[in-house]
Amino acid sequence: MHTTSATVTESALATEAELSDLVEPPSNDLRGRLRAMQVQAVLMLTPMVVAANVVGVATLCLTFRNDVPLPALVAWALALAGGVGLGVRAWWRLRRGHAPTHASPRATTHATRHAALMGLLWALPLPLMSSVATPAQFLILTSITVGIMCAGSAALAPIRNATTAFLALMSAGALAAVLQLSADAVAPMAMLLVVYVAVVLAGAQSWSRLFKARVVAELRAEGQREVIGLLLHDFEQHAADVLWEIDNEGHLRKVSRRMARLLGRTESALEGRSLLELLQRRQRKLRESVAAEGEVALRRLAHHLQDRTPFSHIELPVSIARRTIWWSLTAKPVEGGSGWRGVVSNVTAAREAQHHVWQLAHFDAVTDLSNRHRFRIELDNALESVRQSGEQCAVLCLDLDGFKTVNDALGHDTGDQLLRVVGQRLQAARREGDVVARLGGDEFGLIVRDVSGPDEVALVAGRMLYALSKPCEIGGVTVPLGASLGIALAPRDGQAADVLLKHADLALYAAKAAGRGQFSFYTQSMGARVVKRLDVERALREAIPGKQLQLLFQPQLRLSDGEIIAFEALLRWNHPELGEVPPQDFIPVAEEAGMIHDIGRWVLHQACKEARAWPEAVRVAVNLSPLQVMARDLRADVAHALATSGLPPQRLEIEITESVLMADSHSTLSKLHALRELGVRIALDDFGTGYSSLAYLRRFPFDQLKIDRSFVSEIVDRPDARAIVRATIDMARALRMDTLAEGVEDPSAIELLHEQRCGVVQGYLVARPMPGSEVLAFLQDRAGKPLPAHADSLRGEPGLWAA
Ligand code: C2E
Ligand code: CA
Ligand code: CA
Hints:
By secondary structure, the chain is an alpha/beta fold. The strands form 4 sheets. Strands 12-13-15-16-17-18-19-20 form an 8-stranded mixed barrel, surrounded by 4 helices. The protein has a 5-stranded mixed beta sheet with strand order 6-7-5-10-11, with helices on both faces. Strands 1-4-3-2 form a 4-stranded antiparallel beta sheet, with helices on both faces. Helices cover about 55% and strands about 15% of the residues. Helix 3 runs antiparallel to helix 7 and helix 12 runs antiparallel to helix 13. The N terminus and C terminus are likely disordered. The longest helix is centred in the N-terminal third of the chain and has 56 residues. The protein has 32 helices and 21 strands. About 35% of the residues are buried. The site of one calcium ion has 4 residues, from loops.
């Protein structure tokens, strides 16, 4: 069944060869629509076919009325009328609007059968009529036969099988009629018939092929139109681009809803309006900085419209609802010269991103100051005017003191806020026209233009340092600020940007070395010293393997009974060439270079090992860098040092600084608690410097508070220092912490501290830091020496305690 219908479909339709001009074979849907068109094309000719049939039948009936029996003639005429009637009925239904868009294969089979029926009806009387015809009658018969064959084939041509069936039956009838002729006429007539039929058949088939090809192409085009329509609709709905059209005068036409929405108006309000005028009006409220660009773009657009040249991606700003929106316009003249068609898209996001990238490339994201890149450009400009006008300019390099500690301890957010404050203060303190930039990290740069000489630059530098000297409040925490500054002058210290920056940097190192909060001018001798600092880092890597590190121990004395209860381990680096490097010079380098962990581990092990040989009542105190405290393996390191040395945990005291606590981080506190669980004591070092606040003391229960030397040294001469020390001691006692006064050099300080019930003292007055090998001898020597209660009698003899 399936096979049959498939065969019918194949035969009723064009073969692949016939549709060879089509790119792809027609789909089933297309075949159905093609069949419907074929049937309809045939039916369209029905009135003509009826006329031809009526005239043909009538003429033959009249011509042969006396030679063929009347009933036979009438029966034939009626049969043909019936056949034609079938066609008329179908035609009528088509006229009434019953025109199916699809037709099944049955429809064309039906048409073929009908054609065969008509061919048969026409063929039947031909032999009879031919046998009785006079030459005149034969002429009429031949004419009508040939006419009907041609007309019928032409009418049926869209359906190839119908034509073939019709023509085959009719030519069979005609051949039978020819055979009725005299012998000498048969051959030429038969020949003629065959040739005619062949020509008609070929013509009809070629027509059928063309018809199908045209119909299929039309149907395909229709499909494509639908798809294009859908795509356009979708494009209009969703794409970023909006279609627009203007006439030759530049007036908008066929304004789409999206175009209207883009301009914030209704379609009807925009129809017929001048596009250029609309854009111009939208540019009136633009910021000055973009307005200029808008004007240029609008002029470009106007030029293109005037010259009728296509343009693409003209970006112009417009103001819509007080926002600056960027449009990109692309268009070309419509062929044939009637206006323009184009697209407009909103490229604001892209423009903003582009601007953002530019900002990123030139400005520092944290402080909004110029970045190093832009600083270089500004410096080059400044140096150019130095060369041209002979003026002087200065480059200042500024570095924050202790920024790394704040950043590590309080986190990057606080660090960033601090940098912002610094940026704002520097901006506020600069002179008009001077450039402030963040060069990276905690390093800032300044270009001071057109200065009279070093004195004027010194004034600016002083103002900058003063602006940064006041502490700053961030999230309830008072963070001390401070900076060092290096200065290089152009043209005196160099004329190229690189050279000046390098020299300002060298001056900065010198300023730092001279103590914080200072500025230095570049001098030629500075280069060598900085090379030294870089050498330090390289040399420090050799310190542990080269056994260049050493610990000194400084005793801590309990005031109540004069007993030495502990020694603080203080690190020394004895470099074969650099000599003895003080910890302030190499510990920051070790921290920056990440070597502090190895060095810290060495100190722990060495301190524990040496203390193991001391009397059981004497502890050892070890300083830890904040970076060590924050490291993951601190507890393991301490436990390992205790285990390998065999030192009981309670004989080890860890000294940390407040900066560790500034970050209210859970992990730092839990690390300290974990240490405490090991059984070691924890002391808070340098209390009173920088951040000193009760909040930190509450955060962790320290065993001991070490009052910084800066207070202790002033306790004798300054009542305010004395008040601070007293308050600190009271506070510590309330929190159940021991107190230790650092840097005691003056015997009268001991008396005051004793009065204020300070627990322990440490300082040159008791003893300078000593090698481990001298500790035992020192302790033996100390036994039985006078107690601090008698300190009064020691005034003016600082050497006695240390002796
Ligand atoms: P610190 O912890 O405050 O150590 C006390 C410093 O004051 C020591 O300096 C000590 O020699 C000095 N000092 C003691 N008594 C007096 C006195 O009466 N007058 C004066 N003017 N100074 C006195 P030092 O040994 O140069 O250490 C400086 C800093 O280096 C230490 O300050 C500490 O913060 C750090 N440091 C030392 N050793 C280590 C260590 O092993 N690891 C770490 N991370 N830091 C260490
Ligand atoms: Ca210390
Ligand atoms: Ca200290």
